Amino acid sequence: MTISRFFAAFMLSLIMSAVLLAQSAPSQSLAALGASGGMADEAKEPKLEHFDPNLADKALDPCSDFYKYACNKWLVANPIPSDQVEWDTGSGLELWNERVLRETLEAASKNDPNRSAVQQKIGDYWAACMDESGIEAAGRKPLQPELDRIAALKSKQEITLEIARLHHLFPGAWEEGDNQSNAPFFGFTGQQDFDDASKVVAFIDQGGLSLPNRDYYLKTDDKSKELLHKYGLHVAKMFVLAGETAAEAAADSRTVIELETAMAQAQMDNVARRDPKNINNKMTLDQVRSLAPSVDWDAYLKAVKAPASEHYIVTSPDFFRAQERLLAEHPLNHWQTYMRWQVIHRAAPYLNKAMVDENFDFFAHTLAGQEEQLPRWRRCVRAADRDLGEALGQAYVDHAFPPESKARTVQMVHAIETALQADIQSLTWMSPATKEQAGIKLKGIEDKIGYPSQWRDYSSVKITRDSYLNNVSRASSFEFERWVAKVGKPVDRTEWGMTPPTINAYYDPQLNTINFPAGILQPPYFDPTKDDAVNFGAIGMIIGHEIIHGFDDEGRKFDAQGNLRDWWTSDDAKQYDERGKCISDEYTQDVPEAGPGVKQNGLLTQGEDTADNGGIHLALNALAATLKQQGESLDDKGADGWTYRQRFFLANAYSWCANERPEIARLAVTTNPHSLPVFRVDNVLSNMPEFQQAFGCKAGQRMVRANACRVW
Ligand SMILES: [Zn+2]
Questions:
Q1: Is the pTM of this model over 0.85?
Q2: Integer Cα distance of 504 and 573 in angstroms
Q3: Most buried among 77, 225, 259, 599, by the most CB within 10 A?
Q4: Distance 550 CA to ligand 1 centre (A)
Q5: pLDDT for 531
Q6: Phi/psi at 320 (nearest 5 deg)?
Q7: What digits encode the pLDDT tens for the residues 638-683?
Q8: Could you give the angle at the alpha carbon of 608 between the alpha carbons of 214 and 423, nearest 5°?
Q9: Residue 5 CA, ligand 1 centroid: distance in Å
Q10: Are 618 and 28 in contact (CB under 8 A)?
Q11: Ligand 1 centre and the CA of 115: distance in Å?
C-alpha cells in the first residue's frame, strides 16, 4: 500500500491525519521509480485477498503474540516481491486498482477523434509516460533550459524568482510532505487559518531538504553517517549524469550537503510541529519582509499569483532567521549549485534510464530497501493518479464502487459515530461541560465516502504526447497555483485531499471531515461478501480511527467548525494528558524490526496510536449494537466455529499483516507518525480486556498488558 503523499497540501498533511496503512518508498521517488520491462506481474491477474479465519496458526498461542497467531501463515506464504519494499494483505488490492486504471488509460490513449476532453488528457499523459524510446532519445536535454536559467543568474536578488519557478515545476516542490520538509528553500501555499477556519490565508513553511527529514542530516550514529555519505555519492553521480566532470560533481555534492545540513539544523523537529500552537505564528507582510529580507517577497508573491492575505502564517520563524544568515554567508555560486541539484533531483524520475536508475538506487534501494524498480506501467499509473487523479478516478468509481458498497459503508459510519456518542457519555473522567462540547464536535463531523460530489476541472492543464517531463511540470504548476489561489476566498468544503482509487483515508481537523476514498472500500478492508464481524474488524476499525483523530492529542485542540480553540476544562485537559502520556510511554519502545538500537518516539506517534486504540473500541461496540438489533451477541458462534468477537479480532489483525524490509521500517520509525503494523495489532489488543476475553488470555501473558492504556 502506498503512503499516499500524492495529495497536495503541505499543511494538510501536517495536521491532516491519514490512516497510512503501511509504508512505501519516499514520495519523490514513488511517482516514477523503476526500469522498463516488468513482465513478471503482467501475466498474472492481481488477486484480491479475502479474510479466512482458517489462516490463524493454531500451533501458536494467541495470548503470546496475536499478530503472529493471525498473520504467520499469510506472512510465510507471501514474501516481498523484489520490486516492493513491503507486502501486505492490501498489496493485491493496490495492483488490482492499478490494473483498472491502466485499462482506462490505455483505452483513452488510442488516437480516437471522438475522445472526450478528459480522455485526451489522461490518454496523452499515459502515452508520453510510456514512450520510453522517445524519453531515452531526448536524454538530459529536457533539463537544459532550467540549468541554463540558473547559470545565467547575476545576483543573489535573482534567486527569489528561481525559487518561485522551482515551486511551480515539480510535484510537491512547494509543500511540506508528511512531516518531511522538502520544498526547495521554503514551502508556500494557501490553507485554512488556524483561528478562523472559514478563512484561507497564506502559509510560509520551512523547507530546503532532499532526504526524508532533518534527522538524516543531523544524527551521528554509524548507520546515519553511512547513509549521509552514500547520499553525497549519489548527488555527485547525478551531477555527472547532468554533464559535470567528476571533480566538479564532487565539489558540488559537498556544497549541496553543507547547505541542506545547515537548513536541517534550522528546522523545527517533527514532534514540535505536531502541536499547532508552535506553528501558528501570524505575521503581516511587512513582518515577513523584515524576517527574511533576502527573499524578495513582493516578487515571489507576484510570480506565484498569490492574492493578498489577511495575514501570513510563518510556521517556523527561526528557520527563516537561520536561512537569512546562510544567504548572506554563501556566495551566489553555492546557491546556483543547490538549485541545479533541486532541478536534477526532482526531474530525474521523468528523464532517461540512467537518471531514473541512479535516483532509484539511492532513494528507493538504499533508503527504503527496494531491490527492483516497479514496471514502467505501474509508475505511469501512479504518476497519472497524482497529476490528473480526479479525471482518471471517475472511471474507477464507475467500475469498482457500486452504490450498495457506499450504502453499507455509510451505515457502518453511523453505527460507529453512535458508539462514540455513547462512549463520551460513559466516561468517568470527563465533566458534563466538556462532554457537551465533544458531542457538538462529533455531530459536526461530515462523512465523505467514496468520491467527491464534483470533479476537479483540468481543462486549463495542457497535456501533449511529446514530453513526459513537461506534462508533469504543467500539472504541477496547475496544482501549486490552485492551492495558492485559495487565499482570501471562501473555504471549499467539498474538496478531497485524496484521489478516488487511493487505498487510504483521512480526517481533516480544519474541515472536521472524515474521507474514505473508493480505493480503500474494497477487500480486504471492506468486503461486500463478508459479514459484519469481519467488516467492523477491518474497515470499521479504520473508520473509528479517523473519527478518533478529531479527539486525539492534536485533533482535540480544534472545535466543530475547525477553529484552533480550546473547548476543554483545564481539569479534563489534564486528565486527557495523563491518558495520552500512558499511550506515548507505551509506544516509546525498541523496534528490532528496523535494526539494532532503533527506538520509536511515542510522542511522534501518539495521535495515530490514540486513534488505533480508540478506533477499535468504537468498531467493536458498533458491532455489538448491530448484532443486538439482529438478536445476536458478540459471543455467539458463527457457522465456522468462531465467535463473532474472535472473528472481529482475527479480521482486524489480518487487515494489518505485512512483510516489511528493515530499511523501510527504519525510515518509517524516523519519519512516520504511524506505528509499524505489528504494533498496530499487538500493542492495541494488549490494552483491551475485550480482546483477552475473546481468547481467554490471563494476567501475566504478553497480550495482557499490566499497565493497560485507554483514552477513548
Ligand atoms: Zn491516522
A1: yes
A2: 30
A3: 259
A4: 10
A5: 95
A6: -70, -30
A7: 888 999 999 999 999 999 999 999 999 999 998 889 999 999 999 9
A8: 155
A9: 13
A10: no
A11: 40
